[in-house]
Specification:
Organism: Microbacterium telephonicum
Keywords: Membrane, Transmembrane, Transmembrane helix
Family: Belongs to the CPA3 antiporters (TC 2.A.63) subunit G family.
CATH architecture: Orthogonal Bundle
InterPro entries: PhaG_MnhG_YufB (IPR005133)
Radius of gyration: 19 Å
Largest sheet: none
Number of strands: 0
GO molecular function: sodium:proton antiporter activity
Length: 116
C-alpha cells in the first residue's frame, strides 16, 4: 500500500515540476513566469520528498529531507521577489496591469535622483 502512495506522490510531484517548466517557457510576462516557477515547483518538490521519506521509512532520511524542503520554501519566494522587483525597475513589467503599485513612488524618486 505504501508503494502505491509513493508512486502516486512521485507522479504528482513530477507532473507539478513539469508544469512549472512548461509555464516558464509558455508564459510571456514576468509575474506569471514567477508564479509558474515558484508555486508548482515547490509543491512538487515537497511531494517528491514526502514520497522518498515514505519509501525509505527511516527518520534519518526524513531528517535529511526536512532542511532541503525548508531551504526550498525559504529561497523560492525570496528569489521570485528579487527577480520581480528587478523586472519592475527595468520596466519589463506592464505597470498598467498591476492592481497595487507600491514601488511607484520609489521608482519616481530614483528617477528624479538619477536626473540630478
Amino acid at each position: 500500500m505504501i508503494d502505491v502512495i509513493v508512486v502516486v506522490l512521485i507522479l504528482i510531484g513530477a507532473l507539478l515540476c513539469l508544469t512549472a517548466a512548461i509555464g516558464l517557457l509558455r508564459f510571456r510576462d514576468v509575474p506569471t513566469r514567477l508564479r509558474a516557477a515558484t508555486k508548482p515547483q515547490a509543491l512538487g518538490l515537497l511531494l517528491i520528498c514526502i514520497a522518498i521519506a515514505l519509501s525509505l521509512g527511516t527518520w534519518q532520511v526524513a531528517a535529511f529531507l526536512l532542511p532541503v524542503m525548508l531551504i526550498q520554501f525559504a529561497t523560492a519566494p525570496l528569489s521570485a521577489h528579487v527577480v520581480g522587483r528587478q523586472a519592475y525597475r527595468n520596466g519589463t513589467i506592464d505597470e498598467e496591469s498591476l492592481l497595487v503599485d507600491e514601488l511607484a513612488e520609489q521608482k519616481r524618486a530614483d528617477e528624479a535622483a538619477a536626473a540630478e
